[in-house]
TrEMBL record:
Database matches in Gene3D superfamilies: Hypothetical protein (3.30.920.30)
Record keyword ATP-binding present: no
Species this protein is from: Methylotuvimicrobium alcaliphilum (strain DSM 19304 / NCIMB 14124 / VKM B-2133 / 20Z)
UniProt keywords, alphabetically: Endonuclease, Hydrolase, Nuclease, RNA-binding, Stress response, Toxin-antitoxin system
Lineage: Bacteria, Pseudomonadati, Pseudomonadota, Gammaproteobacteria, Methylococcales
Name under which the protein is recorded: YcfA family protein
SUPFAM superfamilies: YcfA/nrd intein domain
Molecular functions (GO terms): endonuclease activity; hydrolase activity; mRNA binding
Pfam families: HicA_toxin
Xref: InterPro entries: HicA_mRNA_interferase (IPR012933), HicA_sf (IPR038570)
Source organism superkingdom: Bacteria
Length: 82
């Protein structure tokens, strides 16, 4: 596994999303959390499935895309706030 892109935990992904302005939607009885953000008239929705943590590169890339960014940008934020 590349040290440039280490696996991320659920807590780390949620910290990145909160930094980016996403908020968790209230949920009932599911392990999947929905994080949402409206920006320039577009609604971004990121699904975070905490039982799958630490997340694979495929899931991290998917969550980054749902947030409207690349995996590289997602990790840049991670390094900034860690």
């Amino acid at each position: 596994m590349s040290s440039q892109y280490p696996p991320l935990t659920c807590k780390e992904v949620k910290r990145i999303l909160a930094y980016l302005g996403f908020v968790a939607r209230p949920q009932k009885g599911t392990s999947h959390e929905q994080w949402v953000k409206e920006h320039d008239g577009a609604l971004y929705k990121v699904t975070v499935d905490c039982p799958k943590s630490p997340f694979t590169q495929t899931l991290i890339k998917s969550m980054a895309a749902q947030a409207g960014m690349t995996k590289k940008e997602f990790y840049r934020i991670f390094r900034l706030i860690k």
